[in-house]
Amino acid sequence: MIRATRMGFLELSLSRSTAQKAELAKVQSQAVTGLAFQRASEAPVEMAAAQGLNSVALDQEVYVANASSAAGPLTTADEALARVSDVMVRARELSVAMAGSAATAEMRSIAAVEVRSLGEELLSLANTKYGDRYLFSGTSWNTEPFAADGTYSGSTDEPEARVAEDRYVRTAFDGSAVFDGDADVFAAINDLATALEADDTTAIGTALTDVDSASRAIVNVRGDIGLETLAAEDAGELAESLGVVYNERLSVLVTADPVETYTRMNELQSAYEATLQVIGSASSKSLLDYL
Amino acid sequence: MGLLDSIQVGRRGLAAASAGIDVTAQNIANVGTTGYSRRKLVQTTTDPIQRRGLWMGTGVRAASASRATDRLLGVRLVASAGLASQATALHDTLATAEGQLGDTGTTTLSDANDAFWDSLSKLTTNPSDLTARSTTIHAAGDLAATISRIATGLSATMTSVEDGLTTRIEGANAKLAEIGSLNKAIGRSSDETGPADLLDRRDQLVRELGEEVGATVDLQADGQATVFIGGHAVVNGGAARSLTLGTASDGSPEISVGALHVTNDVGGELGGVLTAHATINGWIDELDTFTATFATELNAAHAAGFDASGAAGGELFSYDPASPATSITVASALEDPRLLAVAGAATAAPGDSDNLVAMLDLESSAIFSSSTRTASQALVDFSSGVGSDVAAAGGDADVLEAQLSDTEVQRDALASVDTDEEAIRLVEYQTAYKAAARVLSVGDEMLRTLLQTVGG
Fold first, then answer.
1. Which residue, B309, B375, B296, is CA-closest to B341?
2. Which residues contact A117 (CB under 8 A, 6 or more apart)?
3. Potential cystine with B368: which of A178, A179, B378, B412 (Cβ 3.0-4.6 Å)?
4. Any chain A CB within 8 A of the CB of B416?
5. Is some CB atom of chain A closer than 8 A to the CB atom of B178?
């Protein structure tokens, strides 16, 4: 039989109550902070997972903000090109009307004035700004891209904003590719005006073909920009959804379940108090009291 | 047996009971004395004598006050105390160092790293914006400061361990010398009960030495203790050797006994803090390797670009190659945000973010841990690695403390004083004393009766 002594009992009680107190302090800390763990040593695997989730959740916030920033220039560029298309439609209407025999030299002269005006509007649209940024000057967005004669001074490089880990969208465009890529838009309008001024129906016919080509080129560019706008919107929406998912998972991982925490805290508190009661009652009585 | 013999027997009984009360009193007085082993009175009958053809008993004598002890348990207790102290000191030191990495809610390495890369991402929307450039430079500065703060804090923990080593070794040496002296005194003593107090004191010192430096003990039959550190005898009989503190060729602390290096053999708290010192040094090495790779790669990428005026990029981070983590800062030239080299061409067009994109590519590049991990992953690995080290040390400490507690309970079961038990002994000896006194009283009355009869 093991000799049970008061000292042995107290030693065991001390060891047990110390362990209970440490566990109770840990759960109390969880209850106060609302966090399941505060240091990696408390849950190394969960902490690593939480840091990874926090990192990607923060990335999503940046992608949402970047997609939102990119939407402005993309939408403005699209609107500018829509108006360029309108200009080209009007130029086509004029060229069709003036190519026929019903038009007189005076009518063509008046039409030429309107086409010159359309050319000026086109130049203004090609020099569209978003804030202080020229949208069709590539990365040189502080330089006016097109001179009055259609000469391009912008950059052929295009700036890109990051909207996902491996997805960038353009936030300004190479104007030379937009207005002088598949077809020279300025030349088409200028040639039409010159042909109208010269009352040259053959040249008007040729200009019509060029205006058509230029219109198609603008439509194609608009299509590209439209797709890029959609891509930016999609990336932003996806990042927003992913951000919610990652933050929810992060919250589940790092938040101490209040019900579980309080239940556990009460359990531990009761057990600790019971241990103290046992120590107290065992210490209060001795054989010496009865002698 | 004569009447006088009975009186002698009564006298001896009285003396034995009195000795029993003395031993019990000593036990009760030492109920709270650390390391005290309870005593038990050993009584033996005195030699019989022959009277009128009969062998008659002559009473009792207090032979000794035996000390409740167990050699194997004593040896195990010293070893167990050493292991528990070592694990606890290791855990406590590592946990203190882990605090340098910050709790949840403070800026951790991972947070600072995320903020840096996110600032680069944000800058892609407007690379020439000076406010956004300043934000990026600040984020780079915060990351460098976080790395440096953590590495400096870890170094400070190592320094505090080093500062405490001299005191620890001086304390251990004092105990080694005292154990040697006590061994001598125990060896000289011929009285069986005399050295009990010396043995208690010596055993308590050996146990404390076990806790402090992980000494182990071999208790000899003559009561002397041979004390070892890693198989090297540091106390043998009355001769005690000393531990000395030096510095190894790699700059780490080195413990020796004479010409013998015992750094890897010491245990207890000293062994625990030395292991913690080496572990923390490993953490700093890991952080240094990360920092050097991170700064080198980012600097190379930054240098490949052009700043706002079209000049080639300079350093993004500055550091001392001898201690990259503690010394890393953002290059001082970058106080001017225009010097951030985000452009890919010397024309440095305001929207040119080609080099920024090249730098951002490094975020997802596995350039750390032998080209297997990205920067974020490497930092998460580092933090969780530190956490795992601390958690493992904590787990070991819990197990070894529980084992020590079990051994202490066994030791208490054998050697501790129990007041109830002593109270019973007190009653027992008191009753024996009263009875022996009664024998004397009866003998005295009988003698008086005889004398009155004879004197008649």
1. B309
2. none
3. B378
4. yes
5. no
**Separation in Å, CA of B127 to nearest CA in chain A:** 9
Q: Would you call B34 an interface residue with chain A, using a CB distance cutoff of 8 Å?
A: no
pLDDT band at B376 (very low <50, low <70, confident <90, very high): very high
B114·A59 Cβ contact <8 A: yes
Residues of A in contact with B115 (CB under 8 A): 58
Q: Enumerate the residues of chain B whose CB falls inside 8 A of the CB of residue A288.
A: 419-420, 423
Tokens 């030791």 appear where? B411
Q: How far apart (Å, rounded) are the C-alpha atoms in residues B153 and A282?
A: 47
Average pLDDT of adjacent 10-residue blocks, chain A of 291 residues: 76 84 91 89 91 93 96 95 96 92 91 95 96 95 93 94 93 94 92 94 93 94 93 95 95 90 92 87 74 73
Q: Are strands B216-219 and B329-330 parallel, antiparallel or unpaired?
A: unpaired
Total residue count of chain A as it appears in this document: 291
Cβ atoms within 10 Å of A275's Cβ, excluding its own: 17
pLDDT tens digit string along B388-442? 999 999 999 999 999 999 999 899 899 999 888 999 999 999 999 999 999 999 9
Please answer whether residues A67 and A235 qualify as being in contact, where contact means their C-beta atoms are separated by less than 8 angstroms: yes
pLDDT at B193: 46
Which amino acid is residue B168, in one-letter code?
R
Long-range residue pairs from B361-365, CB within 8 A, at least 24 positions apart, any chain: B362/B297, B362/B298, B362/B301, B363/B117, B363/B120, B364/A165, B364/A166, B365/B297
Q: What is the pLDDT of residues B51-75, one digit of tens each?
A: 888 888 899 999 988 899 888 999 9
Decide if B401 touches A, using CB distance below 8 A.
Answer: yes
Q: Extract the runs of DSSP E, i.e. beta strands, from B156-279.
A: 216-219, 225-229, 232-236, 239-240, 243-247, 253-257, 260-261
Distance between B350 CA and the closest CA of chain A, angstroms: 6
The HSE-up count of residue B70 (CA atoms within 13 Å, CB side) is 13
Q: B412 and chain A: CB distance < 8 Å anywhere? A: yes
Closest alpha carbon to A13 in A280, A266, A267, A269: A280
Q: Quick check: B357 and B117 in contact, CB under 8 A? A: no
Q: Identify which of B118, B124, B391 has the shortest CB distance to residue A59.
A: B118
Count other C-beta atoms under 10 Å from residue B127's C-beta: 29
- Tokens 């035996």 belong to B66
Contacts of B348 in chain A (CB under 8 A): none
